[in-house]
Write a structure and sequence with these properties.
By secondary structure, the chain is an all-alpha fold. The protein has one domain (30-446): Cytochrome C Oxidase, Chain A. It has helices at residues 2-5, 29-56, 63-97, 107-127, 130-159, 167-197, 204-235, 241-267, 272-296, 311-341, 347-373, 375-383, 388-411, 421-450, 454-463. The radius of gyration is 22 Å and the shape is globular. The two termini are 24 Å apart. Residues 1-25 have low confidence and may be disordered. The protein binds protoporphyrin IX containing FE. Protoporphyrin IX containing FE binds at residues 48, 51-52, 69-70, 72-73, 76-77, 80-81, 207, 211, 351, 354-355, 358-359, 362-363, 401, 405, 424, 427-428, 431.
Length: 467
């Protein structure tokens, strides 16, 4: 039963009862998850339907379309995925580090800063004009910077402390938090330039560097940290702490090398050297992704000691690792070819890798790990033991969304007609339905579990004979 409700090693490493994190260490993860899902359903994923539809129907939105693409990217990376990851990491950190969260009073202001920053940007960038727009955009950048400093301070002061037992996971999280501050600083520089030039759209090369740091630096470091710790715990495989530390350092070093070259190329001049550094760094990132999947051990034959009631949910984790291998293969192929040609990967290739990672790995992992470790879902498996069909439907919808979203990008310049946006719009519909369904299940379970005596009712439901 204990294992069923918490399949992750939620106790501090080696911890006895005295060392266990106290319940008040639970940061308000529900607030983070609720904000993340609200920004996803009413923001990022809604735009994932509207933006491809606008192109497929050949509506001429001009630069508004490009501004909304950037808004979609920020809402998805920092809002949906970012806040979910931050909320869950705050919940898990005290358990695996054996330390209470440093500066818990910063947790709620951090959430408010990041969420407000994203909403302000989403409104001001495409819709507002004049000094009001400039003030809101600058305010949004300042809030993100403040939120990032609060986030890094909590992570570093909790995990980079000599008493922390977070081991390699601490490395991933600390390096990811540094990347989070880096992206907020770069974002501020880009916003200041947009305001100075009165531009509606962030300059392309700088925006691409920003998106890279957010996805590869922050999100992939955190998700790799969770994958290399939680998956072996679920499957019963041994964890390799030393190899995992090497993987965390490699990923951070390759991301830093790519970001430095991309920022140099964007702000100074793009040369053959910057292109070579970018391509070589991407090859390194691809190799690290393979290492992370190997360390997670999800495809090792004996890795199937997951609790029977969690087997279907664990398919999301397997799918996420599968898509991570696909992303690694695409990245290696594109970067290898670009290196041979002396150029950099093109925008279709970047888009294919980006959405394999964001939909296939990040979204899949968020849904899968939430189904496995969020308390509401652990309780739900007792309350609704026979809803495996719905979970499989979610899984099929998300995998379908990855295929439909990435397919036109894989065709590249062979499919530039506006019809390339139809499969993307279909992908957006599948993804928003899956995320909205997932959010509704969470809300339903939360409401059900507030009722007194829900656990004994759930136990009765379990004992009822199968019709
Ligand atoms: C199936 C769901 C999704 C659809 C249909 C979709 C659609 C799109 C489209 C049409 C673009 C513009 C591509 C272009 O310039 O031609 C785009 C860009 C982007 N998307 Fe998505 N997307 C989806 C999911 C996601 C998710 C889950 C994330 C992140 C977690 C994400 C992050 C991004 C980013 C970072 C960009 C680039 C933004 C920029 O250039 O600043 N997308 N997406």
């Amino acid at each position: 039963m204990a294992h069923e409700s918490s399949p992750i090693p939620l106790r501090p490493v080696g911890g006895g009862v005295a060392q266990q994190a106290r319940p008040h260490d639970d940061a308000p993860y529900r607030l983070f998850i609720a904000t993340s899902l609200a920004l996803a359903v009413f923001g990022g994923f809604l735009l994932a339907v509207v933006l491809p539809l606008a192109q497929a129907l050949e509506l001429s939105w001009g630069t508004d379309w490009l501004a909304l693409v950037q808004v979609h990217g920020q809402l998805q990376l920092l809002g949906f995925a970012g806040l979910f990851v931050i909320g869950m990491s705050f919940r898990l950190m005290p358990r695996f580090s054996g330390r209470t969260l440093a500066s818990p009073e910063l947790v709620r202001p951090l959430l408010a800063c990041v969420a407000l920053s994203l909403v302000m940007r989403a409104i001001a960038q495409p819709w507002a004009s004049g000094t009001a727009r400039d003030a809101v955009l600058l305010g949004s950048a300042a809030l993100l910077l403040a939120g990032s400093l609060a986030f890094a301070s909590i992570i570093l002061r909790t995990l980079a402390h000599p008493a922390s037992r977070a081991e390699a996971t601490g490395w991933y999280f600390c390096l990811g938090a540094v990347a989070y501050v880096g992206q907020a600083a770069l974002n501020a520089a880009i916003i200041v330039e947009m305001v100075r030039r009165d531009g509606e759209v962030a300059p392309y090369a700088k925006d691409q560097a920003l998106v890279f740091v957010q996805l590869f630096g922050f999100l992939m470091l955190f998700l790799s940290g969770v994958a290399t710790r939680a998956i072996p715990a679920l499957t019963g495989n041994a964890r390799s702490n030393a190899a995992s530390k090497v993987a965390a350092s490699m990923l951070a070093a390759f991301v830093a090398a790519y970001a430095a070259a991309a920022i140099w190329a964007a702000y100074r001049s793009a040369t053959v050297t910057t292109a070579r550094v970018e391509d070589a760094a991407l090859l390194g990132v691809a190799a690290t992704f393979v290492t992370v999947v190997w360390l997670a051990g999800v495809f090792r034959p004996r890795a199937n000691r997951v609790a029977a009631a969690s087997q279907i949910q664990f398919h999301f984790v397997r799918a996420a690792c599968g898509w991570l291998l696909v992303a690694a293969a695409l990245l290696a192929w594109y970067a290898g070819t670009a290196l041979a040609d002396g150029g950099i990967i093109d925008s279709y290739e970047a888009d294919a890798v980006r959405h394999t990672l964001t939909v296939g790995v990040v979204t899949m992992m968020i849904v899968g790990m939430a189904l496995l470790v969020v308390p509401e879902f652990a309780g739900r498996r007792l309350q609704h033991p026979r809803e495996g069909g719905i979970v499989i439907l979610l899984l099929v919808a998300l995998n379908g969304a990855v295929v439909l979203r990435v397919w036109p990008a894989l065709r590249g310049i062979d499919w530039v007609a506006s019809s390339r946006y139809w499969p993307m719009a279909a992908a957006g519909v599948l993804a928003i339905l899956a995320i909205a369904g997932f959010a509704l299940m969470l809300v339903q379970s939360n409401l059900e579990q507030r009722r007194p005596g829900w656990a004994s009712n759930a136990a009765r439901t379990q004992r009822r004979p199968h019709p």
